[in-house]
């Protein structure tokens, strides 16, 4: 479904991602875990075409992504919820969601989005910048979902969000998967969160994958040791 | 006061106020284009005035055609549209060949567009001559009406105001009610993220820049009704227009309108009672003072960043 082979990313002379390869199936949630500075965000940005990268193969559903710009990748089925949420602060919640509807035929926001995030419906006429962190995170997910993605990329969705909301986000991600049967790839540092949503966990360290396991077989102590400083 | 009676002062205020309104209209049209290009894209377009000149010369040329073929009464509306289309097309071309390579280098943009402005001025001078030319205005734009015997309101001023109102309303609809406006605002706020939600940001840049230039073209067409056109006409307005945009708060359309009004009125009324340069000095000092207290301009929107 989503396949990356031998991905390399460099900032000038210093290489940050070293030949990563992975595959994620339809209706699968994959968690990429690692400490700060190990290349998670760089990986996600290169997948979205925000950073230049070289890959032997990068495909969604058999469609090649190599050399595409961000908006072309979105059209081919990638959606991105960045670290720090990056909603458009001076636009209303409704307008924020509508920015994701470039390819959509209607200008109506689909009902299932508001069903998934009732709080966004209540706040639909407020400026995005005036929402709380958790609400902004939901908004960023909603904005990504209206693009009707095949693959949803979430970069540290729990960062800076209070524990009770983290549980909600996990619930929402599971619901999205059930509803749409899409591939979800999430980068994380919080193991309890990934254990609730992921089918498979990969650990990244210094731009290389060093450990991979199915959720049922995960040795929590081992992964924690990778994540501790 | 100043040797005038109270009634005279009242009349002067009304007439100068109205002169200020015409100036406000041209300034607003100029500043709208700039607010879109500078406020939204962050590009300092020193050649913006020349796009206004393009519009002005287009109108003048069309008026000559109109005189030759005898449709003087109808050409003006047509000229506004042609001025817009021509300035839009040239703006599109300039963005494609020059500006898009310089988005990450704001100072270089400033120099490059300044150079472009000089080049364009020379092109105007070579093709239309250094002498100022005026458009042959249709009859319905000439003359004035007098609400009281002591007050003269010129009709061309009223027309320019109406035009500015229509264009402002159009820009407002475009920015806040259309899909294109949504794209533009998203790209402005976060270019990378706009791309990552599926917006073709390069295309948005091109259309935004061209639109700003097109509106400058309309400003030029409007300008021909109140003054004559020369190769350096645009340059005279560029500083005032930038002042309007900065003073109003770069990203706010309402701010642009309010500040264009304030600056045009202040200059027009002060210039009657003082010399023209003292009027400018007084206006500028006030603006500097206010900007020191509100660095983001009059109407910056308040949100968590």
UniProtKB/TrEMBL annotation, chain A:
<keyword id="KW-0029">Amino-acid transport</keyword>
<dbReference type="InterPro" id="IPR003593">
    <property type="entry name" value="AAA+_ATPase"/>
</dbReference>
<keyword id="KW-0813">Transport</keyword>
<comment type="similarity">
    <text>Belongs to the ABC transporter superfamily.</text>
</comment>
<dbReference type="Pfam" id="PF00005">
    <property type="entry name" value="ABC_tran"/>
</dbReference>
<dbReference type="InterPro" id="IPR027417">
    <property type="entry name" value="P-loop_NTPase"/>
</dbReference>
<keyword id="KW-0472">Membrane</keyword>
<protein>
    <submittedName>
        <fullName>Urea ABC transporter, ATP-binding protein UrtE</fullName>
    </submittedName>
</protein>
<keyword id="KW-0547">Nucleotide-binding</keyword>
<keyword id="KW-1003">Cell membrane</keyword>
<dbReference type="GO" id="GO:0015658">
    <property type="term" value="F:branched-chain amino acid transmembrane transporter activity"/>
</dbReference>
<feature type="domain" description="ABC transporter">
    <location>
        <begin position="2"/>
        <end position="229"/>
    </location>
</feature>
<dbReference type="GO" id="GO:0016887">
    <property type="term" value="F:ATP hydrolysis activity"/>
</dbReference>
<keyword id="KW-0067">ATP-binding</keyword>
<dbReference type="InterPro" id="IPR003439">
    <property type="entry name" value="ABC_transporter-like_ATP-bd"/>
</dbReference>
<dbReference type="InterPro" id="IPR052156">
    <property type="entry name" value="BCAA_Transport_ATP-bd_LivF"/>
</dbReference>
<dbReference type="GO" id="GO:0005524">
    <property type="term" value="F:ATP binding"/>
</dbReference>
<dbReference type="GO" id="GO:0015807">
    <property type="term" value="P:L-amino acid transport"/>
</dbReference>
<dbReference type="InterPro" id="IPR017780">
    <property type="entry name" value="ABC_transptr_urea_ATP-bd_UrtE"/>
</dbReference>
TrEMBL record, chain B:
<dbReference type="GO" id="GO:0006865">
    <property type="term" value="P:amino acid transport"/>
</dbReference>
<keyword id="KW-1133">Transmembrane helix</keyword>
<feature type="transmembrane region" description="Helical">
    <location>
        <begin position="51"/>
        <end position="69"/>
    </location>
</feature>
<keyword id="KW-0812">Transmembrane</keyword>
<protein>
    <submittedName>
        <fullName>Urea ABC transporter, permease protein UrtB</fullName>
    </submittedName>
</protein>
<dbReference type="GO" id="GO:0005886">
    <property type="term" value="C:plasma membrane"/>
</dbReference>
<comment type="similarity">
    <text>Belongs to the binding-protein-dependent transport system permease family. LivHM subfamily.</text>
</comment>
<dbReference type="Pfam" id="PF02653">
    <property type="entry name" value="BPD_transp_2"/>
</dbReference>
<keyword id="KW-0029">Amino-acid transport</keyword>
<feature type="transmembrane region" description="Helical">
    <location>
        <begin position="75"/>
        <end position="94"/>
    </location>
</feature>
<feature type="transmembrane region" description="Helical">
    <location>
        <begin position="209"/>
        <end position="230"/>
    </location>
</feature>
<keyword id="KW-1003">Cell membrane</keyword>
<keyword id="KW-0472">Membrane</keyword>
<dbReference type="GO" id="GO:0022857">
    <property type="term" value="F:transmembrane transporter activity"/>
</dbReference>
<dbReference type="InterPro" id="IPR052157">
    <property type="entry name" value="BCAA_transport_permease"/>
</dbReference>
<feature type="transmembrane region" description="Helical">
    <location>
        <begin position="12"/>
        <end position="39"/>
    </location>
</feature>
<dbReference type="InterPro" id="IPR001851">
    <property type="entry name" value="ABC_transp_permease"/>
</dbReference>
<keyword id="KW-0813">Transport</keyword>
<feature type="transmembrane region" description="Helical">
    <location>
        <begin position="242"/>
        <end position="263"/>
    </location>
</feature>
<dbReference type="InterPro" id="IPR017779">
    <property type="entry name" value="ABC_UrtB_bac"/>
</dbReference>
<feature type="transmembrane region" description="Helical">
    <location>
        <begin position="270"/>
        <end position="293"/>
    </location>
</feature>
<feature type="transmembrane region" description="Helical">
    <location>
        <begin position="153"/>
        <end position="176"/>
    </location>
</feature>
